Amino acid sequence: MDPPPSATATYTALHTIALSFIRAQALDPSLATRMNFSLLRSFCSPSFQHSWGHNYAVSLSPPLQGTLSFEDFVTHLQSMLPRLESWKTDVGDVFVDEARMKVVVRISFWMRAKGEEVENDLVWILGMEKDGSDQAMRICRSEEFVDGVAAKRLREIMMEKLQT
């Protein structure tokens, strides 16, 4: 999915960084961690913070409460990845707000655990800033809105895998 031909340089940069961040979370079987966390970090500012929504759903799920640093976000991913056989993403849509330096991405995360594939249809809001060191655009704020029913099913499958 490319930005429109009439897009400004700022729009294109925001769009590109957002999709690069999502693509950096791809399955990479050549790595022991199966995800390239160094590449993922390259799109994030030192002040990166991640959180989840919807507020009510998050209030009922302690692991999703609070705000994570980049290192905490990686720890969260590392806790999930060993329980997944595979995963892939399909980007459905990208909305860029140049004035607010935000990008909203709708994504289907197809996650396979214990032979069952679950589509987590999610919306990710990414806030950006220019990094002072090289003025490159980086993600400073990440808020992920997950499909609560899909997340519940995936959690059930993962817990079954731990018990077998």
Question: Portion of residues in helices?
Answer: 25-40%
Main sheet specs: 5 strands, mixed
* Tally of DSSP β-strands: 5
Q: How large is the count of helical segments?
A: 5
In CATH terms, what is the fold-level topology? Nuclear Transport Factor 2, Chain: A
Shape verdict: globular
Give the overall average pLDDT.
Answer: 93
Strand order of the largest sheet: 1-5-4-3-2
Query: pLDDT below 50 for ≥5 consecutive residues: which ranges?
Result: none
The total tally of domains equals 1
Task: Return the CATH architecture.
Answer: Roll
Oligomer: single chain
| The top level CATH class name | Alpha Beta
State which percent range the strand residues make up: 35-45%
> Whole-number radius of gyration?
16 Å
* Secondary-structure class: alpha+beta
In N-to-C order, the SSE pattern is: HHEHHEEEEH
End-to-end Cα distance, whole Å, is: 40 Å
Task: Characterize the structure shown.
The chain is an alpha+beta fold. It has a single domain, classed as Nuclear Transport Factor 2, Chain: A (Roll), CATH 3.10.450. The chain contains 5 helices and 5 strands, in the order H-H-E-H-H-E-E-E-E-H. It has a 5-stranded mixed beta sheet. Strand 3 (about 100-115) and strand 4 (about 115-130) form a beta hairpin.
